[in-house]
Amino acid sequence: RRIGTDPKAAASFAARKAYLSPAAATPVSAASGLKLLTGSVTTRWYEDNRTPPEQRSVMDGKRDNEWRAPLAYRARPLNGVWATGPYLHNGSVPNLYELLLPAERRSAAFHVGGREFDPRRVGFDASEAEGRFRFDTSLPGNSNRGHEFRAGPRRDGVIGPALSEEERWDLIEFLKSL
After folding, report:
1. Rounded-to-integer distance, Cα 95 and Cα 166, Å
2. DSSP helix/strand/coil, 28
3. How many Cβ atoms from other residues are within 10 Å of residue 27's Cβ?
4. Would you tell me the crossing angle of helices 8-15 and 30-48 to the nearest 10 degrees?
5. For 150-164, what is the mean pLDDT?
6. pLDDT at site 69
7. Per-residue pLDDT tens for 58-77?
8. Residue 15 CB: number of other CB atoms within 10 A?
9. Angle, alpha carbons 110-8-26 (nearest 5°)
10. Peptide bond before 70: cis, by omega within 30 degrees of 0?
11. Strands 28-29, 17-18: parallel, antiparallel or unpaired by DSSP?
12. CA-CA-CA-CA torsion for 144, 146, 151, 153, nearest 10 degrees?
């Protein structure tokens, strides 16, 4: 199902390669590198804690260490969502209030890097200030489209019906409680 978000971040991760060491002749995919890293860390922990092989299998969920990098986004739990702005997979929406708006009403640019929390709109203060940089949603990979609440069928990024101002603020108050 199409959610209407900018796919560039997922495509970039899937295409990313890295050298495992300065002496490595060829790079490996990000997924392969992460698989090697998590496997090494897990093995080291098992060895340091003298974990027997049969217990390792149980602790591994009786499955191999597989790292997949599909061109998709996983939904995250909403616990503590009030403290995780900016929002969307690429941080392109500064607060929960704007996330609940149709995309054309969201900020086209805002500033990130501050630590001042905005308890009303639920996000960080996105105003211009020293030490902050401008986030421009028109740049590739920075789109703030998708996950919209608007009138019309649920497709092409529309995930719910249009919300009234009262419904939007009620939903924000609920999300603060998670």
Report:
1. 17
2. strand
3. 13
4. 70
5. 86
6. 57
7. 888 888 887 665 666 666 77
8. 11
9. 125
10. no
11. antiparallel
12. 160
Residue matched to tokens 């101002």: 165
pTM exceeds 0.90: no
Mean pLDDT for the chain? Answer: 87
Strand partners, 29: 17
Short-list 6, 3, 8, 7, CA closest to 143: 6
Distance (Å, whole) CA 141 – CA 3: 15
Q: Which two tokens stand for residue 28?
A: 């490996």
pLDDT of residue 35: 85
CB 122 within 8 A of CB 85: yes
Number of other residues whose CB lies within 10 A of the CB of residue 115: 7
Contact 92, 136 (CB under 8 A): no
